[in-house]
Write a structure and sequence with these properties.
47% of the residues lie in helices and 0% in strands. α5 runs antiparallel to α11. The chain is globular, with a radius of gyration of 21 Å. The two termini are 27 Å apart.
Length: 332
Amino acid sequence: MSEGRNSAVGEQAAGNRKNPEKAAENGSGRAAGSGSAKRAKQDREEAVTPEAKGDGASAAGAEAGAAGAGRPKKKAGRPESRLAMVRRARRINRELAEVYPYAHPELDFRNPFELLVATVLSAQTTDLRVNQTTPALFAAYPTPEDMAAAVPEELEEIIRPTGFFRAKAKSLLGLSAALRDDFGGEVPGRLADLVKLPGVGRKTANVVLGNAFGVPGITVDTHFGRLVRRWKWTEQEDPEKVEAEIAAIFPKSEWTMLSHRVIFHGRRVCHARKPACGACPIAPLCPSYGEGETDPEKARKLLKYEMAGRPGQRLNPPPDYPGSPAPPLGAD
């Protein structure tokens, strides 16, 4: 961020600390004039409740990482209503859409089969490690027929860097054989069919449907589950129950992109052990503000990937991704 923009952010944040109601109307510290009258009216209608408002507001942008925000006030004896929670949840989604307009699946893939395999491999490891492993994998086994005929030990050796390679190899051999024998070598585009494949659950199926077939779905991974509970959108722990409750809050058309935005935020800002609260662009809307580092300077040091000026997880990111590509295997 330029020196001039930093100064503007500071002035805006100072004004918002004096007038939190204005901060809520302006969309977490953004100037009301930057949006249309319709957008301003929508923000007023869905303004955060007193329990969730902060005495500071962020002026963060994706390019800057995020600026600090004050501790949200909670009014004792006034639990948030269902309607207020839904409005706050939708406000958070809009804010995240502005911070991460480039949100995308962080697995490299060129077709539904590659995305399916990559998603199975992503269990208990990072997308980066999967992306560094799959080029050699798909060079050796480009189709379900090829992978179904693989020598197990050779397949295991290729995917070893992703961990749990024996179990994953068994799943890949099984799902490839099922695709070959039951679906003509094509990945099916229905949830009911996908979850029948070895190693494929609802999370994997929704990733494939949303990103390879354009079928809306909510991906409840560890990041998504952690954040929606921190934001008090749900108290559920079971992924399927989480999926059902979040689906009731948002229109179906938002499900896939909501998943990307929440997961992006969880990986970059709202970490499991040390959330960067002081650098969070949606801090005024978060009822769990203060669980992590609130000092803006210290919090900025906790940011990851492009928010911290470092490479992302994809070796081949989308053209609009503001960060740099990840290094290939052996170069990191």
